[in-house]
UniProtKB/TrEMBL annotation:
UniProt protein name: UDP-glucose 6-dehydrogenase
Catalytic residues, chain numbering: 272 (nucleophile)
Cellular component terms per the entry's GO annotation: nucleus
Keywords: NAD, Oxidoreductase
One Pfam assignment: UDPG_MGDP_dh_C
Taxonomic lineage from the root: Eukaryota, Viridiplantae, Streptophyta, Embryophyta, Tracheophyta
Species per Swiss-Prot/TrEMBL record: Nepenthes gracilis (Slender pitcher plant)
Length: 478
């Protein structure tokens, strides 16, 4: 029986291994992590991450051929294939600080694999890593191997949170990179055989190691660039009276461009886009390509600009001061259908409003009070380290209240900011909300989900990203 072990039971390790276990009943899959609470949660009814469809998959396989454990060494030593899906944060100090990937967790996982292995293994990079990481990992493994042979493969993960299970069951492609030697090809074949249980052959792409590593960074850079491009246009729309929804639709109708990922918003978030682009920028700089580095850097700068622009719009519309005004924040997760808040634009928007002394009342259907307060008090990049290394949760943040209901959150508020596109925010009773708010009542829609005409009719002053502004936002109240 083939045994698979995955180091790192996070947003990637958990769902990907659950789907492999579901589709390959004859393979035993163990997911291991150093975090005891995380593993306990995977073994309970309250999984550590919210992901539509995940519960069902886990329930079908757990205890049969899918196991979650903190006994990292035992499962690694028994495995034929070891996936490494640990976090790869941005370095916060030293060489490459603020850009380069911090491979501390990866390197310690590699050293542990070398220490405990008694038989040959395929080691698979599942984490997103800089190009040429496999070379470094190969060195660590072979120099500590006691004669055991290791083959390194790169198999980056392309799932999107919120749709992870659908993406894993029906991937656009599976990418496997390996050495172009006989042993390398055999290893690629072995991993290909795993995916071939449910993925059509023509969607499994085999490349050399460096192409696979770079393709992941490139794909995230292209995706983020699309969002920054449409957000750049949204600023021009507001200045000219064009409507970004109409512009996106017209642009996306070109088959070469396509309609997806063209929604203007308050900015992209999530654990990957910024981190991976910074990493790409750093690699370009190290390879003497400053023009290429600056090109990609601009994608992040534009994203930061969009968040700042949103905060400025809120403050300037509200007579240039939000001090002690109650502002409701609807949505804190970085997108709908996930409880993940890593790099969520809501964090920067809230920090910006707090900087102007606003009182915040925050509601998100999936994010806990503890998580929101942690996010608002954490330094940049701290979030991407295992929980036990993060600062303890603060008791309270002055001026922030987290509530469990949108109506309670909006009561007596001066303004509401929609920062996540949760479906339930489309269908709220805005008339009821308006009646319970201070006047003038403002709506700042950072996701373009409300019906602007209808809300204006109710009496709201509405700002929507990239839409024609009403007279108010030009500083000329009607
Ligand atoms: N989240 C996504 O949507 C996504 C998508 C594609 C790729 N990725 C990449 O996948 C990697 C993992 O991302 P994630 O979102 O799952 O991160 P995560 O933080 O949710 O999970 C990583 C886990 O690894 C564990 N860990 C760290 N060091 C360990 C060690 N030495 N031994 C055992 N466990 C260890 C941590 O405790 C944590 O639970 C990152 O490189 C990320 O860039 C993420």
């Amino acid at each position: 029986m083939v045994k698979i072990c995955c180091i790192g039971a996070g947003y990637v390790g958990g769902p990907t291994m659950a789907v492999i276990a579901l589709k390959c009943p004859e393979i035993e899959v163990a997911v291991v992590d150093i975090s005891v609470p995380r593993i306990n949660a995977w073994n309970s009814d309250q999984l550590p991450i919210f992901e539509p469809g995940l519960d069902e998959v886990v329930k079908q396989c757990r205890g049969k051929n899918l196991f979650f454990s903190t006994d990292v060494e035992k499962h690694v030593s028994e495995a034929d294939i070891v996936f490494v899906s640990v976090n790869t944060p941005t370095k916060t100090c030293g060489l490459g600080a603020g850009k380069a990937a911090d491979l501390t967790y990866w390197e310690s996982a590699a050293r542990m694999i070398a220490d405990v292995s008694k038989s040959s293994k395929i080691v698979v990079e599942k984490s997103t890593v800089p190009v040429k990481t496999a070379e470094a990992i190969e060195k660590i493994l072979t120099h500590n191997s006691k004669g055991i042979s290791f083959q390194i493969l790169s198999n980056p993960e392309f799932l999107a949170e919120g749709t992870a299970i659908i993406n894993l069951l029906n991937p656009d492609r599976v990418l496997i990179g390996g050495r172009e030697t006989l042993k390398g090809k055999e290893a690629i074949q072995m991993l290909e055989d795993v995916y071939a249980h449910w993925v059509p052959k023509d969607r499994i792409i085999c490349t050399n190691l460096w192409s696979a590593e770079l393709s992941k960074l490139a794909a995230n850079a292209f995706l983020a660039q699309r969002i920054s491009s449409v957000n750049a246009m949204s600023a021009l729309c507001e200045a000219t009276g064009a409507d970004i929804t109409q512009v996106s639709y017209a642009v996306g109708k070109d088959a070469r461009i396509g309609p997806k990922f063209l929604n203007a918003s308050v900015g992209f978030g999530g654990s990957c886009f910024q981190k991976d682009i910074l990493n790409l920028v750093y690699i370009c700089e190290c390879n003497g390509l400053p023009v290429v580095a600056n090109y990609w850097k601009q994608v992040i700068k534009l994203n930061d600009y969009q968040k700042t622009r949103f905060v400025n719009q809120v403050v300037s519309s509200m007579f240039n001061t939000v001090a002690d005004k109650k502002i409701t924040v609807l949505g804190f997760a970085f997108k709908k259908d996930t409880g993940d808040t890593r790099e969520s634009p809501a964090i920067d928007v809230c920090k910006g409003l707090l900087g102007d002394k606003a009182q915040l009342s925050i509601y998100d259907p999936q994010v806990s009070e503890d998580q929101i307060k942690r996010d608002l008090s954490m330094s940049k990049f701290d979030w991407d380290h295992p929980a036990h290394l993060q600062p303890p949760s603060p008791i309270a943040i002055e001026k922030v209240r987290v509530v469990r209901d949108a109506y309670e959150a909006t009561k007596d508020a001066h303004a509401l900011c929609i920062l996540t596109e949760w479906e339930e925010f489309r269908t709220l009773d805005y008339k009821r909300i308006y009646e319970n708010m201070q006047k003038p009542a403002f709506v700042f829609d950072g996701r373009n989900i409300v019906n602007v005409k209808r809300l204006r009719k109710i009496g709201f002053i509405v700002y929507s990203i990239g839409k024609p502004l009403d007279a108010w936002h030009h500083g000329k109240p009607e």
